[in-house]
Amino acid sequence: MKFEVLTIFPEIIECYIKHGVLGKALNKGIVEVKVYNLRDFTSDKHKKVDDYPYGGGAGMVMQIEPFYNAIMHLKADEKPRKLVLLSPQGRKFTQKLAQKFMEESKAMVLICGRYEGIDERVKAFVDEEVSIGDYVLSGGELAALVIIDSVVRLIPGALGDELSAVEDSFMKGFLDYPHYTRPEDFKGMKVPEVLLSGDHKKIALWRKRQALKNTLKNRPDLLKNLSPEDMRILKELC
Ligand SMILES: Nc1ccccc1-c1cnco1
């Protein structure tokens, strides 16, 4: 899987991708991330990327030319790639969309805007417009990192423990169960007895009950298409 990121702040992307799961996946060659500075695709000596909005209004708008030049530069190799614009107006990014991107795209271009927005005509050159949530960010870079991180975690072999990708919450359709590790007693806060019992069946049931309880409390919208067994457990909780 190859990610090509267009941004005026390449260091934001470059710094993050060296660490954790992404760093390991890069070292394994499972994923490649190339970052392009949009300022390298400008034609003036000041490497200008924005200008005042037509029609007036506050702030600056990013100009189309650097985006167009960068996209044409990438497309010169004629290899297929999905072009994704990160934007508050995009469709909501979910685990399901992460799975779809991982399965369908060998290469993705993540286009990061800044300021109050980008020239609308850029959208004529992208395949998808994606938002990671209903809040205002300073730019698309954090959203691009969210997409890279969540898609890479789904690539077979990217994680040390394959199970953790399957176990991750949202893959099952509800939130995760509570996790504990040593010490058993921290200032009187004890690990639930069941987790010390060694009874894997009881532990699995406890974890399922806790996951459903957490989901019912914080994200009831996720509780659909439950199995009859999960529905029975949920009814016990109500
Ligand atoms: N707020 C933003 C500003 C610029 C580029 C993307 C975003 C964004 C993406 N997902 C939510 O917000």
Task: Explain what you see.
This protein has 238 residues and is α/β, with parallel strands linked by helices. The protein contains 8 helices and 9 strands. The strands form 3 sheets. A 5-stranded parallel sheet has the order 2-1-6-5-7, covered by helices on one side. A two-stranded antiparallel sheet has the order 3-4. β5, α4 and β6 form a beta-alpha-beta unit. α1 packs parallel to α5 and α7 packs across α8. The radius of gyration is 22 Å and the shape is elongated. The two termini are 44 Å apart. The model has no long low-confidence stretch (mean pLDDT 93). Bound molecules: 2-(1,3-oxazol-5-yl)aniline. The site of 2-(1,3-oxazol-5-yl)aniline (J9Q) has 12 residues, from β5.
Task: List its salient traits.
binds 2-(1,3-oxazol-5-yl)aniline; two-stranded antiparallel ribbon; 17% strand; 238 residues; alpha/beta; 9 strands; 8 helices
